[in-house]
């Protein structure tokens, strides 16, 4: 068994771990990053292999080696989920994500208080466990700004220091300055969507994306190839952690990256501190790293599992779990999708970055009056490629035909032939409230390739608040489709809502150590030299994608570690 010593060990070098690695190494700390997957190069993605990256989803964890199981409730036996697409390489999910990069709304940080103030206490479902974030949007704003400028995000401001700007998202929270880069080119689907949404009185705008619209920091602009979500970028225009902060960490000389390293335990001593981690190397060697600070950023399924696997006599229920909240209050985007097909025009959805090309935010969060609707929260509405993650040739795969057309044989072929280039998909990511019994624990029946119990998810989105919200948003999606002038408008079947790469919660942050796992700096209440960073810390979610927020939180944690914790180790106030 090999043992190494360092200042900081980071488990999982993805969207958040890669930021912490760069920031702490730049501050002179010796950092070791453990990543279970490989390190790719931009050149590796030159082939744009749809079979490999879209059909076989080569950049996600192998479900046979790394299963995650799911059951709708505690009375059911969990089964391995359909392959779950999340991070599994240096850069994590950002290598193959859609790069849509949202700041959350001001109200997203205070869902509980704001809903009670505006609609009364009965607006929150009785068994819902939502708490406010231990920070406001204004507290996080400097870090949102930081990540947008560090990695390069393209977009148009809709609210500059409180001044609303048409053409940007007028519902966004105030930002202090413009995006570092102008929006990406608007394609035909976005133009048609924009016109339809404006007819209905909504406020469409180009979606902010961590994809370069112009050359930035030595990287080239987007080539609009369409091989985007689920693919690595073949020119390095996607601002993934692989091409942004990892090279910065390398340049310090203080960062050591170990790939093929599967962390299986966080080690602790009887003083109540963590002492480091143990991991299996690619050659199955068993290794230990001793560190002053342990940072866990392996995404939520693995972070909960690791903490539960690390139980000791002193921490019999797992680390950071003295109050029983570890693994609980998970949430995910539910969805809602409508297709619009046109007899009289081409849409050419397969061109350009695929995810959420153009958006309206009128029905998201608390941007509209929910009085009398019977639900709180909502969703952004965007036009995008039909499969959430489709490349150009596979564009039709995610589109079930409209009612009356079978999904096989000649009628199906005729349908696809006619509408392949003449359809759009209008999507929503309806958000979901937290409940204590929506949770992750260890599966007693299923193990991974290393012999470790698989993470088991217990989750079912079909609660009254969520069902009403989804039904409301689906109607809006259809209205937009008709306003776009489509000949056919039809709904995609709703998913069963099983978790995916936008899952949040499980180690939530809060102001109260009795009801949360970490504080606002993502520091464990129980163990001050343990930081848990990522979307697992979100106490509530947003109708927006999570990654820019978790990256802003990573910069906030890095700042707190470098400028405060390092000088005075202990619980940060
Ligand atoms: C196809 C796809 C499209 C997406 N599109 C968007 C989008 O448009 N916008 C958006 O905001 N978000 C999007 N996401 C989600 C986004 O990728 C995640 O929010 C983000 O990557 C999470 O960051 P993280 O640091 O928590 O985890 P990750 O980025 O997943 O990084 C965690 C890393 O930890 C490693 N790891 C896990 N367990 C261990 C272990 N035990 N030992 C060692 N290493 C370990 C993993 O291999 C992984 O590389 C998308 C995700 C996918 C898969």
Describe the structure.
The chain is an alpha/beta fold and about 575 residues long. Helices cover about 20% and strands about 15% of the residues. The chain is globular, with a radius of gyration of 23 Å. The longest helix is centred in the C-terminal third of the chain and has 20 residues, at about 465-485. It has one domain (about 1-40, about 55-75, about 85-565): FAD/NAD(P)-binding domain (3-Layer(bba) Sandwich). A hairpin with a 5-residue loop joins strand 16 (about 440-445) and strand 17. The site of flavin-adenine dinucleotide has 43 residues, from strand 2, strand 9, helix 7 and helix 10.
Broad shape? globular
H/E element string?
EHEHEEHHEEHEHEEEEHEEEHEEEHEEH
Query: On the 0-100 scale, what is the average pLDDT?
Result: 94
Find the CATH superfamily. FAD/NAD(P)-binding domain
The end-to-end distance, rounded to whole angstroms, is: 38 Å
Strand content: 15-25%
Q: Which molecules are bound in this entry?
A: flavin-adenine dinucleotide
Number of strands: 19
Question: In CATH's first tier, which class applies?
Answer: Alpha Beta
Domain module tally:
1
Fraction of residues in H or I helices: 10-25%
Give the C-alpha Rg. 23 Å
**Largest sheet data:** 7 strands, mixed
């Amino acid at each position: 068994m090999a043992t190494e010593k360092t200042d900081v060990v980071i488990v999982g070098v993805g969207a958040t771990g890669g930021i912490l690695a760069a920031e702490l190494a730049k501050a002179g700390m010796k950092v070791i990053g453990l990543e279970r997957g490989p390190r790719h190069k931009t050149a590796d993605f030159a082939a744009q292999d749809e079979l490999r990256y879209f059909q076989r989803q080569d950049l996600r964890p192998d479900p046979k080696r790394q299963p995650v199981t799911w059951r709708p409730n505690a009375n059911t036996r969990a089964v391995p989920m359909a392959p779950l697409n999340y991070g599994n390489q240096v850069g994590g999910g950002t290598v193959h994500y859609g790069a849509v990069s949202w700041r959350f709304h001001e109200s997203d940080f205070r869902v509980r208080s704001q809903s009670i103030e505006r609609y009364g206490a009965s607006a929150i479902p009785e068994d819902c466990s939502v708490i406010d974030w231990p920070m406001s949007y204004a507290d996080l704003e400097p870090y949102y700004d930081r990540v947008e400028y560090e990695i390069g995000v393209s977009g148009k401001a809709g609210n500059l220091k409180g001044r609303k700007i048409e053409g940007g998202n007028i519902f966004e929270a105030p930002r202090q300055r413009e995006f570092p880069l102008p929006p990406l080119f608007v394609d035909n689907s976005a133009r048609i969507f924009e016109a339809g949404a404006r007819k209905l009185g909504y406020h469409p705008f180009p979606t902010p994306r961590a994809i370069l619209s112009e050359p930035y920091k030595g990287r080239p602009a987007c080539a609009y190839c369409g091989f985007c979500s689920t693919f690595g970028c073949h020119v390095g225009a996607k601002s993934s952690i692989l091409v942004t902060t990892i090279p910065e960490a390398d340049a310090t000389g203080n960062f050591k990256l170990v790939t093929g390293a599967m962390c299986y335990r966080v080690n602790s001593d009887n003083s109540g501190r963590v002492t480091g981690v143990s991991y299996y190397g690619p050659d199955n060697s068993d290794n230990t790293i001793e560190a002053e600070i342990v940072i866990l950023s392996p995404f939520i399924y693995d972070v909960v599992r690791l903490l539960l696997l690390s139980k000791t006599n002193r921490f019999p229920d797992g680390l950071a779990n003295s109050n029983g909240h570890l693994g609980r209050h998970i949430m995910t985007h539910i969805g809602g999708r409508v297709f619009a097909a046109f007899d009289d025009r081409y849409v050419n959805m397969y061109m350009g970055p695929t995810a959420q090309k153009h958006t309206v935010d009128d029905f998201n969060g608390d941007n509209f009056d929910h009085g009398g609707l019977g639900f709180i929260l909502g969703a952004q509405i965007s036009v995008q490629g039909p499969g959430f993650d489709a490349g150009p040739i596979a564009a039709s795969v995610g589109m079930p035909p409209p009612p009356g057309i079978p999904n096989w044989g000649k009628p199906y072929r005729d349908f696809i032939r006619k509408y392949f280039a003449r359809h759009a998909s209008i999507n929503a990511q309806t958000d979901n409230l937290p409940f204590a019994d929506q949770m992750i624990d260890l599966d007693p029946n299923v193990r991974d390739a290393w012999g470790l119990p698989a993470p088991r998810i217990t989750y079912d989105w079909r609660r009254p608040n969520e069902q009403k919200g989804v039904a409301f948003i689906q109607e809006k999606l259809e209205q937009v489709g008709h306003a776009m002038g489509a000949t056919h408008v039809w709904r995609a079947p709703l998913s069963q809502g099983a978790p995916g790469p936008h899952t949040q919660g499980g180690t939530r942050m809060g102001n109260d150590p009795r009801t949360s796992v970490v504080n606002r700096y993502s520091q464990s209440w129980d163990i001050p030299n343990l930081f848990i960073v990522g979307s697992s810390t979100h106490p509530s979610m947003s109708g927006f994608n999570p990654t820019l927020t978790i990256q802003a939180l990573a910069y906030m944690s890095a700042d707190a570690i470098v400028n405060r914790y390092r000088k005075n180790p202990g619980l940060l106030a």
